[in-house]
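does this look right to u?? zinc ion version
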Amino acid sequence: MENARNYKLIFIYEIIISKNMYKLLKFKKPVASIFAITVMAGFMSLSSVFIVKAQTIDLLLKGGHLIDAKNKIDRKMDVAITAGKVFRVATDIPASSAKKVVDVSGLIVAPGLINMHTHVYAGSKAGFTEGTSSQLPDAFAPRAGITTVVDAGTSGWRTFPDFKAKIIDNSVTRVLAFLNIASGGYSVDKAEENIAEMDVQKTVETVKKYSDILVGVRIGRYYGTEWTPFDRASEASKLLNKPLFVECHLPMYSLEDQLNKMRSGDILTHAFENVSERMTVVDEQGKVRPFVMAAQKRGVLFDVGHGGGGFWFNQAVPAFKQGLWPNSFGTDEHRTSMNSGMKTMLNVMSKYLNMGMTMPEIIARGSWNAAKSIQREDLGHLTEGSVADIAVLSVSKGKFGFVDSGNNKIEGDKKLEAELTIRAGRIIWDLNGLAANAYK
Ligand SMILES: [Zn+2]
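got this back:
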């Protein structure tokens, strides 16, 4: 679009100069005519440079099957990338116009995946906040086709600046975050439950100050019976008009009360867990509880939030069959979950693929749906002009086992893998050297 405008401008300038040159020649002013011709020649060579530059594609993904939910694309399309952005999406873009061409035929080309539930404030302390239970974003995201991670409240208004300086500003993966209503974040200690530190105003101020990174407010660990922590987190999110992200370590609050307090657009994670600290979404007879269905109808969003204990087939399978589908595939990424049944976001997506969700439905939840839920509609699609965050995925066929948090297994014949991950036009993961030079 930008280039089309530039061509138009150059064309108009050339007409103006040609007209003036004609006038000068008509009135026999040779010096002025020579000057005008020189200017015109300069402009023409400038415009040709412009056109050549416009035609130069840095990276062309050729022959892949593009799935882009926002743009309703589910077919073979080439994707051209220039200067870190999607330059063109079309059925057949000539290879001659690109500096580098990668043959991705037989593979899925999708918007870079968004992992809605991670703990990435890694450090040397015990636990999650600046801790060893968190993971560095670049240690797991690129290899799973993920270009954006959303941290689930591992920091609060006191600790966010440190998180930003140490991790967010030093990661290739884009890191966004929910800010914990607890001032220190998900520290898993007494301090996290100190209500006096759960400051609505300071939380709102911090989210506003870092609005390019902070996407909402999180509540997720409180063992008391008072609703003050939940209500303060909810109030802050309301004041910001951003989602409230509800995690699970709230054993004294009933699930029904939590859902009743949540607004349309708020997100419940660990949706399909089966642990003592929260009521399950599916009852003992295998039916999704009516108040859970009602919450979904009202617009409350359900994130998988797999984690080490948050995903059970005896919840997820009946819920899926009865229409309680997750809106996003957050993994609750941390040191323990990544080595349990969860493994990677693609493994979680593969579980749903084998449960019967179609590929476009899965890709939508891994990209565009997630982007919309955090009000980042600049992400999760490959519209021309948008950032070139891309996942190139393969579907392996074979016999695979998928394990839940209770060590129960389903078998499947399809499994997603990330072949190529591209962040702002740069290849950050290349499983089989698709873009590498052949060794001779
Ligand atoms: Zn979590």
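Residues 38 and 373 are 56 Å apart (CA to CA). idk if thats expected tbh
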